[in-house]
Amino acid sequence: xxxxxxxxxxxxxxxxxxxxxxxxxxxxxxxxxxxxxxxxxxxxxxxxxxxxxxxxxxxxxxxxxxxxxxxxxxxxxxxxxxxxxxxxxxxxxxxxxxxxxxxxxxxxxxxxxxxxxxxxxxxxxxxxxxxxxxxxxxxxxxxxxxxxxxxxxxxxxxxxxxxxxxxxxxxxxxxxxxxxxxxxxxxxxxxxxxxxxxxxxxxxxxxxxxxxxxxxxxxxxxxxxxxxxxxxxxxxxxxxxxxxxxxxxxxxxxxxxx
Amino acid sequence: xxxxxxxxxxxxxxxxxxxxxxxxxxxxxxxxxxxxxxxxxxxxxxxxxxxxxxxxxxxxxxxxxxxxxxxxxxxxxxxxxxxxxxxxxxxxxxxxxxxxxxxxxxxxxxxxxxxxxxxxxxxxxxxxxxxxxxxxxxxxxxxxxxxxxxxxxxxxxxxxxxxxxxxxxxxxxxxxxxxxxxxxxxxxxxxxxxxxxxxxxxxxxxxxxxxxxxxxxxxxxxxxxxxxxxxxxxxxxxxxxxxxxxxxxxxxxxxxxxxxxxxxxxxxxxxxxxxxxxxxxxxxxxxxxxxxxxxxxxxxxxxxxxxxxxxxxxxxxxxxxxxxxxxxxxxxxxxxxxxxxxxxxxxxxxxxxxxxxxxxxxxxxxxxxxxxxxxxxxxxxxxxxxxxxxxxxxxxxxxxxxxxxxxxxxxxxxxxxxxxxx
Lengths: 258, 422
Known about the structure:
With 258 residues, chain A is an alpha/beta fold. Chain A is built from ten helices and twelve strands. With 422 residues, chain B is mainly alpha-helical.
């Protein structure tokens, strides 16, 4: 989004290096993410795009041998700083995973979990409202409103993924990270999710990792191309797809490798 | 070339057929052994659930009982029943001499006096009247009536005399011998007399031991497993601990008995022969079983669930307590029940800490001396009397029934509460 013609930067990463044990997975990544836009990260398998995504909400902490260097600045605050509280960070930065992973609980409980642990609802009514708006935003309300208290794992794959998106937006995050959210879904479910992403960018900044260049072209405004742990090129999606500067980018988007 | 291929294919089919046959015969063998085992136990044990009673007319003679007119309840309680008991047995044969009267007395259990007393306390109006009273037959006659006793042995090799057999046969002909369900097997404690021995003390002892074992082993094991699996760093030290937990599971149970003897009894001076000490000793044994089961079921929770919770901003503790642990509970609980079932069947460590003592009271708490079911089997199997042979099998049946119920429960928990993910 542009304010007074100036791009608003939500996330600013400087010199990010990531190591898995001795192996370096990301090399000196400098990438700015624009607010209320969809940024797609593309590149062949193993190029580090998911690793970078997981740096943004410190999910790499879960992996014992993973070390992250450099600065990632969100709201003027370096999240790689020791003083950063990951619980609060992850409240601000939601995540949707490759495979739908609803909790084996009811649909209602899946959505209410985040607001409950962060103390966002004072009463049952407020919680009901959060659940309803989250499901509506995720375009799932009409399908599940009569069976909120049935297990979330009983939904179809596409519905489960939208449930996970609803769960992510229930705590009103500023940023939503999506790690190949459609790779386990059929084309119809994929289309629904893509439509949803377009809708969500009004309120949230979205970063999506995708394997499908067509999807990147459809949903994103900005694109970053990763190759072998390096950020080769980034810019507006139009420019990357129509007029790439780097030869590797051109080869990749024209399907010569990857 | 083509022929070779054909031969190879045939060979492969034949190998598969042979393998199926081996598998089927293995299962057949296992079933055969199981059937023989169960048949043997049931065929020897079922008769222990029946008990033989002699129906003897008893005259409640106030004078012989040293009772005044209109006795109070207390008077009845303090009255002397031995003489009327003796008299009613002696009256079975009016021509009996003193030796024979003694033999007559030994046809019933030494409890006969109390059985007569109970009859009168239930109905004080019986004073001065005569009533047929059921008296527990001695274990030898019990075995004779059940057909387990070789009557054709020479008399000096038998524990029942010809005279006793004669009187007994007369009673049988008169219909004064009856076989009824042996309730006392479940309600009486152990006894030196086979006809009076029951499993109440050892059953309660087992229950108390298992409860103590559960209360100690379950929380310790679950906390250890959660910490090791979810929180502990993976390094050499935790690897070392893991190896040692697995080793602990393989330690022979008698070693734990020695530990209980040397530490709980000798150092801490806990009361010996009690379910408390037995339970603590058994909990040491059960601990590794539960830890291993709990860790395995924690491992089986898909990492995607943990990631989902973490990405929602749940802390490590919340992720573990809200999601991982509840999801691992079915596996943990069924592992716990199987561990407890193992502990229930354990004999050796209990013998070492003194739960093998002869206990003829029913324990009311884990601090009272008690035996346990497997130890009871061991004690009875050592006894010489014929009456104990069927008791051993009957006790095994009770223990097996207990174990089957526990394992069934473990299965039900696993199937019913196990969550299926996507």
